[in-house]
Amino acid sequence: MFTTGSQELSDIANALASNGTEWRFNPPAAPHFGGKWEAVVKSTKFHLRRLIGESLLTYEEFLTLLIQIEAILNSRPLCPLFDDPSDVEALTPAHFLIGSSLATLPEPSLEHVPTSRLSRWQSLRQTIDRFWTRWSREYLQRLQAVSKWKHPSRQIMVGSLVLLIDDRLPPSKWLLGRII
């Protein structure tokens, strides 16, 4: 059943190895070897637990929540996509998964609407908005701490791609700019 997939995986591994790709695997059951991506997983679980609490969600609601959180995580900018100073697009985890950045439709924020006035769908949207607010704030603080304390930080100069904070942006949207 998995013979075709196994052969394709073997072909890909051989092609990459011939181009000098070196595979490094983490030991099983050793998340501390994961570094930054394990920190993102830990942060996501922390905020998800705090937001859901004792709430009872249906399977569909929980699945929707996880898919929306997945979109938030896969939309975060990693580095500039191009060296062209006129381009402000960043490489995101979504580029590795689907080959391009994620396209999301804007929705009105429900974060400050009283819970008693919300339908189940609106309540779920409010939870997603709250996750975005808390997680993105923590993520940005961690980016500053890492560059500030762990490695000598690169100085911002003309042409640098920068991440701007704008609390009015909807989930999965990051404001990027270039220093001119």
From TrEMBL:
UniProt superkingdom: Eukaryota
Gene Ontology MF, one: nucleic acid binding
Sequence ranges assigned to domain DUF5641 in this UniProt record: 119-180
InterPro entries: DUF5641, RNaseH_sf
Pfam families to which the protein is assigned, alphabetical: DUF5641
Name this polypeptide is given: DUF5641 domain-containing protein
Native source organism of the sequence: Ooceraea biroi
Lineage: Eukaryota, Metazoa, Ecdysozoa, Arthropoda, Hexapoda
